[in-house]
Amino acid sequence: MLYWNGLPREVASFQGVAVRSLSTSSPHDHPEHGRLVYKGNLAKTVLGVKFFSYSTSIFNLFMMPYIMLKSGIGVESLLVQGVFYGLIGIFTFVTPVTLHLLTKGYVIRLYYKDEVDTYTAITYNAILAEKATVFHQKDVKIPDISKMFTTFYAKTKSMLVNPTLFPNPQDYNHLMGYDKSSIFKFEDLEAVKEADERK
Fold first, then answer.
1. ∠ at Cα 32 (166, 126), nearest 5°?
2. Cα distance between residue 140 and residue 107, in whole Å
3. At 194, phi and psi to the nearest 5?
4. Do residues 119 and 112 touch, judged by C-beta distance below 8 A?
5. Is 95 within 8 Å of 50 (Cβ atoms)?
6. Per-residue pLDDT tens for 107-127?
7. For 130-167, how does the pLDDT look when each residue is reduced to its tens digit (9 = 90+)?
8. Residue 91 has what DSSP assignment?
């Protein structure tokens, strides 16, 4: 028996009662994006590193006037001021921008809609919010030269995924277009021969 404002209240107990979900979709489905086919294992690390970099940059910006007043850097030579501001500028602005450029294509989650053959890649944008990029399988381009932070291009945006983190390898093969047949049809081969003979 519980008491609320001095009055006794009865609380229903759910001990021993099985709770079932009436949902027909799997827990990895998203109603808007489709079926979850990939989940990046570095999502929290990327978010943490970017958040730490942003927070230290903001801290530097707020501490800069105090440091300048207490250190007396304003009366030193122009060369010392340039070196000081350059170092602070590198840590304040260049590091977060570089981190964003390196990690903006890291795919946190990848969803696939079978009906329309579209993928939705979830990445982090510059303000650490999730950003959805929707593309078709035909928009996927594999770079000619292997790049460090690019597995494929979706339209013109570079994306980075780890192929070993796909629970079903067939999903990765379909994403990259490896499941398409590269065997020529006999009719196509005959048409090429006829075109060569006409020349």
1. 75
2. 14
3. -65, -40
4. yes
5. no
6. 999 999 999 989 999 999 999
7. 999 999 999 999 998 888 889 999 989 999 999 999 99
8. I
CB-CB neighbours of 148 under 10 Å: 6
DSSP classification of residue 38: E
What's this model's pTM, rounded to 2 decimal places? 0.70
The position carrying tokens 């994306």 is 159
Which of 109, 151, 112 is closest to 130 using CA atoms?
A: 109
Q: Kindly state the tokens that stand for 172.
A: 């990765």
Q: What is the spatial distance between Cα 163 and Cα 60, in angstroms, rounded to a whole number?
A: 39
Quote the CA–CA distance of 186 and 178 in Å, as a whole number. Answer: 21
Length of the chain counted residue by residue = 199
Neighbours of 96 (CB within 10 A): 19
